[in-house]
Amino acid sequence: MVKKMAKFFSKRRLKIAEQIIIVIFFAVIIPMSISGIIINNVNQQSNRAQLREAATMIANIVSEEVDVFQYSIDNELNQISATLEYYNSPQKTDEYLDTIIKSQPFYKNLLIVSQNDIKNYDRYHYDKDVAVFSKELKDGNHLVAILDMKNLRNNLFKILEQDRRQIYVLAGDENRLVASINYEEDIFESSMEQLPQNLQKDKTVIYGNVKNQPLAYHKKTKPNITIIVNTTEDVTKKTIDSNRDKIILSIIITVLAVFFVVGLYTSYLYINIRQLFKAIIAISKGNYRRRIRLLTNIFTPFELVFLGTEFNRMINQIHKSYVQLNKKNKELKQLNEFRSNMIDTVSHEFRTPLTSIQGYTSRLLRQDIEIDEEMKQKSLKIIKKQAERLSRMIEDLLVIPDIEGSKLNFIIKPVPIASVIENSITLVKNDSNKEIINNVSETDARILADNDRIEQVFVNLIENAIKYGKESSPIVLDFEKNDNKAVISVKNDYDVIPREKLKTLFDKFTRVDDSTTRTTRGTGLGLFIVKGLVEGMNGEIRLYSNEECGFCVKVYLPLEEKITTV
Q1: Edge-to-edge, what's the strand order for the sheet holding 225-230?
Q2: Ramachandran region of residue 202, left (φ > 0), alpha (ψ -120 to 50) or beta?
């Protein structure tokens, strides 16, 4: 059986609740049941001994009551006999005895019996209805007292009226029943059948065949009576059976209480462990935000609370590491994209000016043809223009690390915004000769900025507007004040750009026209650089695109604070 159970449990792992039930069964229920059986047996033995002692004590009490009754009657007869010595005539003697009978109702009769007739009377004689006592007088006659047995019964069983045991008083060797309490004929007959034939005298003895219903007898020699005490079934139930039922009930209540407490403890424990399981499963599936939420109370063990706290702390660290890893992966992906875009852009954008430079340089170096002065100047101008273009692209690439690392150095000072815009327009390469409307020239406002860097910002913005503006549409530059900031707008007519696309224009290598619809040249770094420069000078740049303005860039820069003196 044990091997089969071990084989079964080896194939199947038990849950905590099942293990607790098995532990309770072997560690609580079985020991408690065995203890209950032992306690019940010990209690039965104790109760049996108590019943035997009680039967013995009651038999002795009744025996003592008989002795007391007999002693009191002897004393009264002695007093009566002493008084009779003063009466010389039979008539007065009879009158005196009649007076005593009337004053003492328990006397049925008082007689003066001659010595010849006394043989008809025992010294102490008990019968069902009467008890006979005699006292020898000085003249040789005997005083005989006949008493009513009701009085004897009342005295014998007065203190035992509440006891449920059956008590029998038997007289003579023939065991005549003269007094009893709680008498039942069948039980009396059974008690008499079990009574030994040879009785021990003047000693209380336990006898009987039923161990939980002991019988006791006391055989007295003077007077010749036998007292039998029978422990009834009711007394047994009250003592042994009742106590046994209480023990069994207490064991059942204890087991139920243990099951209740353990069940309550197990339920809370199981709920908390399920939380732990769910958290572990969530982690295994990649959910690093799941936390253990324990149901804490007096039944929650410290170890489980500690485990939950440390688990949540571990999850927080894992989640942080996971977020950082995702961030690094994203940065790495962006870096890879940046590298790919940079290679594609640089290879594409650098190829055109290099090709032009190489072509015109080769033309100038040819000896087999004659090149006039006009052609030389034209070729040199193209070479210079393409070289300047390469220089600008290289500068744009070199300034990116400084912007990203916040390593740009600015010399911030008050600068007239009107002169900045005019200089920027002058520096712009406007090959298409687009009209530039400058509405900033009339203001005398001064901004706090780095002069060279702010000119670089507006050169890039105006060149972008020229590149992407529609043909024959002007570039408009406006100025306004907003609180303590100057707002310079650069507008050009262009198709409305979707908001999603508009948000990405500040990213590196991002252009309005993608690689499939590209119509203009550029690295896609202009707006990224402009944003870095403007924010480095404590400014702000915003992009707008709608039907009214087409494409609009607004640059917010701090104004010079004018100090007025009184």
Answers
A1: 176-181, 166-171, 225-230, 215-220, 204-207
A2: left
More confident residue, 328 or 398: 328
Spell out a b/e string for 339-365, using b for 16 or more CB atoms within 10 Å of the CB, else e.
Answer: eebbeebeeebeeebeebbeebeeeee
Backbone angles phi, psi at 157, to 5 degrees: -105, 15
Examine the pLDDT at 510 and tell me if it is beyond 80.
Answer: no
129: exposed, middle or buried (Cβ count in 10 Å: 0-12, 13-18, 19+): exposed
Cβ count near 315 (within 10 Å): 20
Element of type H or E holding 544 = strand 540-546
What residues contact residue 489 under an 8 Å CB cut-off, 6+ apart? 476, 477, 478, 479, 480, 552, 553, 554, 555
* Paired sense of beta strands 166-171 and 225-230, if any: antiparallel
Distance between CA atoms of residues 169 and 180, nearest Å: 6
Residue 201 sits at the vertex; the CA angle it makes with 200 and 207, to the nearest 5 degrees, is: 40
CA distances from 242 to 38, 178, 233, 248, 250 (A): 16, 34, 12, 10, 12
**Residues 250-259: what's their mean pLDDT?**
84
Tokens of 500: 């999603």
Q: Which long-range contacts (CB under 8 A, 24 or more apart) does 64-73 make?
A: 65/155, 65/156, 66/156, 66/169, 66/220, 66/223, 66/225, 66/227, 68/155, 69/152, 69/155, 69/156, 70/124, 70/133, 70/223, 73/133, 73/145, 73/147
- 3-class secondary-structure state, position 441: coil
Q: Which of 147, 138, 141, 129 is nearest to 70 (CA)?
A: 147
Round to whole Å and give the CA distance between 49 and 36: 20
Task: Give the C-alpha separation, 24 to 37, whole Å.
Answer: 18
**The 142-148 sheet, strands edge to edge:** 107-113, 142-148, 130-136, 124-126
- Which residue do the tokens 């039980």 mark? 187
Report DSSP state, residue 216. Answer: E
Q: Report which DSSP code applies to 201.
A: B
Other CB atoms within a 10 A radius of the CB of residue 192 amount to 13
* Environment class of 186 (CB within 10 Å of its CB; exposed 0-12, middle 13-18, buried 19+): exposed
Spatial separation of the C-alpha atoms in residues 149 and 108, rounded to whole Å: 10
pLDDT score, position 459: 85
Exposed, middle or buried, 193 (CB in 10 Å: 0-12/13-18/19+)? exposed
Give the pLDDT confidence of 356-382 residue by residue, as tens digits. Answer: 788 878 878 877 777 788 888 888 878
How far from the centroid of its chain's Cα atoms is residue 311's Cα?
16
Read out DSSP for 127-146? -SSEEEEEEE-TTS-EEEEE
Tell whether the model's pLDDT for residue 513 goes beyond 60. Answer: no
Whole-angstrom distance, CA of residue 455 vs CA of residue 420: 6
User: Distance between CA atoms of 135 and 138, rounded to whole angstroms?
Assistant: 10
* SS3 call for 113: strand
pLDDT band per the 50, 70, 90 thresholds, residue 487:
very high
Cα–Cα separations (whole angstroms), residue 283 to 304, 322, 535? 19, 12, 42
Predicted local confidence at residue 555, as pLDDT: 92
Give the separation between CA 312 and CA 303, rounded to whole angstroms: 14
